[in-house]
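can u do me a favor
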């Protein structure tokens, strides 16, 4: 996270605001290519987790092997579609840009050639082999970042960014293949491949609604940058990106924690009682709100000083933009967790329609408001989509799935929302009267705000159902630490 924050001013220094803005926009082409997979890879972790749950109760079942064989055939066929989509994007959108033609061409070529290998990390995610995947991604990110920095210093410019991305993509997929062959060789045989027969339309239908969701997710995740670039130019994209950077970096932490719960929730769909599913879903969202509240409080109070000290005041988009960005972050994270639970429970069709409505409303309002309001208008558009479309629909669907009233669904989250709101607003008001001289002092102030927030929210957490999860985690950590210390002392 800290290295990622350092890289942005490094890129700005070597590439310049204009070229770096072009790269941020150009990399969005991969989002278009991903739409060609029809959502099949997106449902693999959930479906593998569900069949793995059945496998645990019925050891003789071959449903998991059949599922993987079917998915493998679909992915091999879809590689052709991905290749055609990549070729079309390169010919009609990228070829005219001389600075991006070669680097983005390399990225697209590597992406298409290694696309079938993306299946293996997805299977490992469904099997909840999360420790291995996390370790691999940390090491590969470190190596690829080092390569990118060296190539940039050598003058490779856009090629440096492209080669770093390609190294990480290829190595992660190959590591997934190696791990699966080592831990579950029974899933890699050709016996089930022959049993499932030829391609069938039903195999594609699992991911069709997820593909609709992916189209909508592109509207939500990447369209804001394209809108800014189209109306205000690439240089303004950098101002927008820098102002949102702290939120963008910090939101990865709670989103990652939420996403790794997907296989577990899918398994609980077939292997747990309604009461346990309710408890797990509520506690997951509460846990995300605890983390999101800390991010909200710190960024709201310190974002202006952070951007000023980080890359300079000319890249700060204003206090209004900051307030809107953190509000949108908080609402979107709550929605992300609710939507994740709905997807795990098998509601991809209705969720896809909801995502599409959210995307259409967000992009439409943002496109209308960017002219008169500038950058704040873009965030207002996406905030309207989340607050007026996404959250109400998700709460209604989850209440119906868990057989609860709307009040019962909303009530567990209210104590967290008002607490983070109070801490964030008080910290924001105080910081308007102070001046931060350095990033070191900024880090100390951020830690102080975080401690105050935790002192206010933890007593409530400890009394809630989420406290049971925390106590269990602390007990496991103590047991692990004790065993490691005993093992270390026995060696010496």
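np, heres the sequence
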């Amino acid at each position: 996270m800290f290295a990622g924050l350092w890289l942005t001013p490094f890129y700005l220094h070597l590439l310049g605001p204009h070229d770096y803005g072009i790269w941020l926009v150009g990399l969005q082409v991969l989002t278009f290519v991903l739409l060609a997979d029809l959502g099949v890879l997106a449902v693999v972790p959930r479906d593998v987790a569900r069949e793995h749950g059945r496998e645990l109760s019925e050891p003789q079942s071959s449903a998991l092997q059949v599922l993987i064989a079917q998915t493998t055939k679909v992915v091999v066929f879809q590689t052709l579609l991905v290749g055609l989509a990549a070729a079309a994007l390169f010919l009609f959108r990228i070829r005219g840009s001389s600075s991006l033609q070669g680097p983005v061409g390399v990225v697209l070529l590597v992406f298409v050639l290694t696309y079938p290998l993306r299946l293996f990390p997805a299977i490992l995610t469904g099997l909840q082999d999360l420790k291995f995947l996390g370790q691999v991604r940390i090491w590969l990110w470190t190596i690829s970042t080092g390569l990118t920095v060296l190539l940039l210093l050598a003058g490779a410019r856009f090629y440096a960014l492209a080669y770093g991305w390609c190294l990480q993509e290829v190595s992660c997929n190959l590591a997934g293949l190696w791990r699966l062959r080592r831990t579950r060789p029974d899933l890699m045989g050709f016996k089930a491949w022959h049993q499932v027969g030829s391609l069938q339309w039903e195999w594609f239908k699992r991911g069709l609604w997820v593909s609709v969701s992916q189209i909508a997710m592109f509207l939500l995740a990447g369209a804001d940058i394209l809108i800014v670039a189209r109306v205000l130019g690439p240089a303004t994209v950098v101002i927008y990106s820098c102002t949102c950077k702290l939120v963008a970096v910090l939101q990865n932490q709670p989103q990652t924690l939420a996403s790794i719960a997907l296989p577990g929730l899918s398994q609980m769909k077939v292997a747990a009682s309604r009461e346990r599913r309710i408890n797990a879903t509520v506690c997951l969202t509460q846990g995300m709100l605890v983390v999101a509240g800390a991010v909200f409080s710190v960024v709201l109070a310190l974002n202006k000083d952070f951007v000023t000290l980080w890359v300079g005041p000319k890249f700060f988009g204003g206090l209004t933009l900051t307030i809107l960005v953190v509000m949108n972050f908080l609402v979107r994270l709550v929605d992300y967790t609710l939507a994740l639970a709905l997807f795990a429970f098998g509601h991809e069709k209705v969720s896809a329609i909801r995502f599409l409505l959210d995307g259409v409303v967000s992009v439409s309002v943002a496109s209308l408001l960017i002219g008169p309001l500038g950058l704040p208008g873009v965030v207002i558009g996406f905030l309207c989509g989340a607050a007026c479309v996404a959250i109400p629909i998700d709460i209604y669907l989850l209440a119906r799935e868990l057989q609860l009233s709307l009040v019962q669904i909303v009530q567990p989250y209210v104590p967290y929302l008002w607490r983070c709101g109070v801490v964030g607003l008080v910290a924001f008001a105080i910081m308007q009267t102070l001046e931060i001289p350095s990033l070191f002092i900024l880090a100390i102030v951020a830690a102080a705000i975080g401690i105050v927030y935790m002192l206010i929210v933890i007593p409530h957490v400890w009394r809630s159902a989420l406290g049971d999860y925390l106590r269990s985690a602390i007990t496991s950590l103590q047991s692990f630490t004790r065993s490691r210390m005993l093992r270390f002392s026995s060696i010496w």
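The longest helix spans residues 274-310. hope that helps!!
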